[in-house]
Design goal:
It contains 8 helices and 14 strands. With about 270 residues, it is of the alpha+beta class. A hairpin with a 4-residue loop joins β6 and β7 (about 120-125). The structure holds adenosine-2'-monophosphate and calcium ion.
């Protein structure tokens, strides 16, 4: 069995467990602030993934949101970047619009990506070079849509920030409309399936974007930070994902006008 096939089975099993534990009580704790939540399901799912991966592949590394592998400072060998529940606020308040996300890298190169929309039973997945899929349905390479004909994904909370708001508002104004789903992993795969033209956010952790980013590249989409630089799985970053033309437009004609603001923002991520 390939690592890709193994991971596909594992994420489906993790999703099954999530739907089972959800029927019982969801226990909620806060982390860094009152809106930063974690549940017993986040923790149990990460533990399930971590223990199974390490049992099957003792030499692989696992970086997970809920505490595993935060000491990993290299991309040598096989690295799994795992978010057990992406969209925890949605999970707590809505019991939907969340996903399990896994990105697998070999010596720093993307190898396979998975985003599992558990409630809708939609697994977005790819092994690099073999096409990206929504369940068994092959996704098409992204067409070139302009901003004025695109719905963009952006969290409205960012638009109220004094420094970032003025940079982001023109993008929203020039788009067809904006949407916020509250799960970065899902929003990135919505770009990969063409539901969204772009997804833009000033701050994500590697586990929020790793799985989706690999699927997005497989359909020829572009994912970078707001300065147009490559994303690393070892640092938080701002994220812009879109089809190649729209991506260049956003970087060159919108975000590029705020270089100083962006350079300051990114200094915090190092
Ligand atoms: P999470 O639910 O796994 O924490 C919500 O807009 C998206 O941003 C989700 O994907 C969420 O992931 C992520 N997110 C929430 N708070 C964040 C923070 N402080 N830094 C980076 N990503 C965050
Ligand atoms: Ca999470």
């Amino acid at each position: 069995m390939t690592v890709y096939e193994y991971a596909k089975g594992l994420i489906l099993e993790a999703g099954n467990n999530v739907t089972k534990i959800m029927q019982q009580d969801i226990e909620i704790e806060t982390k860094s602030n009152p809106n930063d939540l974690v549940t017993n399901v986040d923790k149990a799912t990460e533990k399930f993934l971590f223990e199974n991966i390490k049992k099957t592949y003792p030499n692989h590394f696992v970086i997970g949101e809920e505490g595993h592998g935060h000491d990993v400072t290299h991309t040598n060998g096989v690295v799994w970047v795992v978010d057990p529940i992406d969209g925890t606020l949605n999970f707590v308040h809505q019991q939907e619009n969340f996903a399990i996300s896994i990105g697998i890298f070999k010596d720093g190169e993307p190898y396979a990506g998975f985003v599992y929309d558990v409630i809708n039973n939609k697994l977005y997945h790819c092994k690099v070079g073999e096409g990206a899929f929504e369940n068994e349905h092959l996704l098409q390479n992204l067409a070139h849509h302009t901003l004025e004909k695109s719905i963009i994904g952006i969290n409205p909370n960012w638009l109220t920030k004094p420094k970032l708001g003025p940079m982001l508002q023109p993008i929203v104004e020039d788009s067809r409309s904006a949407r916020a789903y509250g799960s970065a992993a899902l929003e990135i795969v919505f770009v990969a399936t063409g539901k969204l033209g772009a997804y833009i956010t000033p701050r994500l952790q590697p586990w929020d974007f790793a799985g989706g980013m690999i699927i997005l590249s497989e359909v020829r989409g572009k994912a970078t930070n707001m300065l147009g630089e490559p994303l690393s799985i070892l640092h938080p970053n701002s994220v812009v994902v879109a089809n190649a033309n729209l991506h260049d437009d956003l970087i060159n004609n919108y975000l590029g006008n705020y270089k100083d603001t962006l350079i300051k923002l990114h200094e915090r991520f190092k």
